[in-house]
Amino acid sequence: MILNRSNCRRSIDTKRHHLRKKFKVFFSARKVLLSIFWDSEGVIHTEFLEQGNTVNSTICEHTGETESELRRVRSEKVSIIHHDNARPHTSLETRTAIDRLGLRTLPHPPYSPDLASSDFFLFPKLKDYLKGNRYETDEDVKNAVLSWCRDKTADFFADGIQQVVRRWRLCIERDGDYVET
User: Mind telling me which residue stretches traverse the membrane in this protein (predicted)?
Assistant: First the structure.
């Protein structure tokens, strides 16, 4: 819930003779889930999940099928997928879909958001951009996200990939310890 203090009303409690604030309570917008493919050149594909859906292996398999379309965009490159070890990403259905598409998965250590580029780089920057803004509808949120993605340069995304390389090296140097910024 979002509590909007600018809309509070004051009322007098005659029994206690002091001011009491009553707040209007607003329910926050529903969660909007984003699946995003990006590389050092920019955003390749975005997909918003239907309201009420969660990330599961069926969604990941569908997203994996989208990857075959994405390979045409970056056809000169070997397609490697990097994601964390969440159950939907490691399920048999997802691994089968990735294998069927001839893609390679870059291994990711468990419980390591410090080494996942979307977790430490992309999503925090997107959240900072969205923070403090009010969106009336899910479509408004989606449009803001897509606008943010379009406004980012290739240098921005290349920096995100370079940070992955730097963090992985630090992790190796620290014998697997967590990597802070």
Answer: none
